[in-house]
Design goal:
Layout (H helix, E strand, L loop, with lengths): L4 H4 L2 E4 L5 E4 L8 H11 L4 E10 L2 E10 L2 H9 L3 E4 L6 E5 L3 H4 L3 H6 L8 E6 L6 H11 L6 E6 L4 H8 L2 H11 L7 E9 L7 H15 L1 E6 L3 H5 L17 H7 L16 E6 L5 E5 L3 H9 L4
Parallel strand pairs: 2-8, 7-8, 10-11
Antiparallel strand pairs: 1-2, 3-4, 4-9, 5-6, 6-7, 9-10, 11-12
Helix pairs in contact: 2-7, 3-8, 7-9, 9-11, 9-12
């Protein structure tokens, strides 16, 4: 991004502590290509992210395609927004993604997947409306065991072009995390492909959270290549797609409002792509579960009250 900052609609600055901050949508417009690069950074650079197009109920819409050759490392150890960054004194809050998570390893997930990395530099991506204060930047650097001047922070609000793109690009990660939640040995996942429509940018972050989650829950498709016994797939297949949840069919914004904006009050079984396909190279069989819900997305994104 650095040499093309102006063209990409992003802004680069150095904080007082030395950390580099890349604004991708707070005080700048961002761009689709900045969103693609933001998503690629969240994946640790070890995946492919392509901007494309799709249709919803006959309406043309942009989409993103993701291909991952190291799913656990790229998705769970990097892209997954598992680092809750919360500062009581300043009130700052953001969810952290990116390869710096593998330096911190403060989440229980890392004890389960066994991914360990060491580096003298770290990159974290934040989904937030404002830049973190100096105290938070120093805290992040300390957790990652790097000097503040060796920390790079990418930031984009959910209600931004970059926000819409980078959340849609989490489609493979969302399904992989669901596999892990169901007790599947994710080290058996050899590769992943996915596609999801890119949500229209909303007028505020709350509605943007609803739209971007709906993009995956009702419009996301994933394909995983695995090596395991067929019974390990068939035993969890009905629980893999989003439609297995009792909350399925209700727009995510409405679910959040009903839960007083507490994600933990929403059924965790909902967080998955609409359609999941698993190809087992050991048996040669392919299994599919779930269904797309283009009508819900079209109504939410293009309806009279959208």
């Amino acid at each position: 991004m650095y040499p093309e900052a102006e063209r990409l609609g992003v802004a680069w600055r150095v904080a007082d502590c030395g950390a580099e901050i890349v604004d991708c949508g707070i005080d700048v417009p961002g761009s689709p290509e900045a969103g693609r690069l933001f998503a690629l950074a969240c994946l640790g650079g070890s995946a492919g992210v392509t901007l494309s197009a799709a249709t919803l109920e006959g309406r043309w819409t942009p989409s993103v395609k993701v291909r991952v050759g190291e799913p656990v490392r790229s998705c769970l150890a990097s892209q997954y927004a598992g680092w809750m960054i919360k500062d009581g004194e300043s009130g700052y809050f953001a969810m952290g993604s990116g390869p710096a998570r593998a330096l911190y390893r403060g989440e229980a997930l890392f004890r389960e997947i066994g991914c360990v990395e060491e580096s003298d530099a770290g990159l974290i991506a934040l989904e937030a409306r404002s830049s973190p204060p100096e105290s938070v930047l120093r805290h992040i650097a300390s957790c990652c065991r790097v000097e503040p001047e060796k920390l790079m922070v990418l930031i984009a609000p959910t209600a931004s072009i970059v926000g819409s793109v980078q959340v849609a690009a989490r489609v493979v990660e969302t399904g992989l995390h669901k596999l892990h939640t169901l007790g599947f040995d994710v080290s058996r996942v050899l590769a992943g492909w996915g596609e999801a429509p890119i949500a229209p940018v909303a007028s505020d972050d709350g509605r943007a959270i609803g739209r971007t989650n709906d993009a995956i829950l009702y419009g996301g498709r994933v394909w995983y290549t695995v090596d395991c016994g067929d019974e390990q797939i068939t035993g969890i297949l009905p629980k893999l797609p989003a439609c297995c949840s009792a909350d399925y069919g209700t727009p995510f914004y409405e679910l959040l409002a009903r839960a007083s904006w507490d994600f933990y009050q929403i059924d965790p079984m909902l967080f998955s792509p609409a359609e999941v396909t698993v190809n087992n190279i050991r048996s040669g069989r392919t299994f599919t579960a779930g269904r797309m819900n283009e009508a819900l997305l079209a109504e939410q994104w293009f309806g009279a009250d959208a």
